[in-house]
Amino acid sequence: MFADKDISKFNNIETPFYYYDTDLLQKTLQTCADAAAPYQFHIHYALKANFNPVVLKQIKEIGFGADCVSAGEVKRAVEVGFDNKKIVFAGVGKSDKEINEALDLDIFCFNVESIQELAVLNELAAKKGKTAQVAIRINPNVDAHTHHNITTGLDENKFGINSWDLTECTDALKASENLKFIGIHFHIGSQITNLDVYKNLCVRVNEFAAWFEDKGFKLQVLNVGGGLGIDYHNPDHQIPDFGSYFKIFNEFLTIKPGQEVHFELGRALVGQSASLITRVLYIKNGKKKNFVVLDAGMTELMRPALYQAYHKIENLSQSGVRPESEVVKYDIVGPICESTDCFGKEVEQPESFRGDIFAIRSAGAYGEVMASKYNLRDAIRSVYSYEI
Ligand code: LLP
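Structure tokens predicted for Diaminopimelate decarboxylase (388 residues):
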């Protein structure tokens, strides 16, 4: 729930905008850092979830590294002040230009996703007279039991090197003079709420680690990716259970002395700390449906249109005004010329009026970063809790 002071302040701000609760972000980051500390786990924040510079500065200050998937993200991380030696660069399609830029910035590690990429990276590093540190991303074929569009670790997914190609991969590594192999990397999917999935991942990581060690490779890094989910239905249960999450890895992962365990969390760190704040433009009461037409749409928050993702929707102007039993069912839609531009169907809300302020909750991850200019919309703005 938003505090009343927020709602009255929102009234005077032009909508739509992303509202960042920087105190909540701080609390979430600190809770995560405290939960990881006893195990000396390393966190690299996945910039793809949100690369807003204000958010990034807070994350950098807590001491986390950066997990990037483009040279743009690598450069953003450096600009914001992340230590180059705490930046990893993943991605199934790194271009030569991007690899060169990352080599120039002497980042910590490239998470390599194909044998061909190993050869290209080796060649580009050689041209610069550099040695690039690499981790091999392995596709472990572990089902993340999440939405099929955000599952990444199954045989049918494009990510990582398949287990049957690993011998060819180690041969290539041995022959690559400008690469230093430091570890193995996994990421099985996003918005994972069933933590048992991570036990299965640990079993697979242990098997792969043993395979590499049998072949005489020393693994400095075990990178288990990210994916920890948040509670979209109860955004007020704000901070994910980092303690239980890390405990699983401590219990089920075989960690050798001197080995570092790396995590790449995105959504769990930033998801709950922002809401999309938007105003009702029109109410349309039809024969079959009642519509609330908002001034934000799929161009500002694409997840519902793209994945039928659920985000809790609250009419802040009317909440607590009438008894909770007096509700109307609305399809809550945006202004974009697409039928999928809908934040929720048959959503129970208090009777709503033109000018009411709505909050679309849990929008801190994969929200602002996935905004588009479709319909030549204005760029979405951000407002921070410390400003108002
Ligand atoms: N590491 C790798 C290699 C990844 O591909 C991802 C996310 C992460 C880390 C961070 O995952 P997280 O902790 O945030 O779950 N746009 C989708 C999510 C796509 C996730 C892509 N990869 C959504 O809105 O649900």
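DSSP finds eleven helices and 17 strands in the chain.
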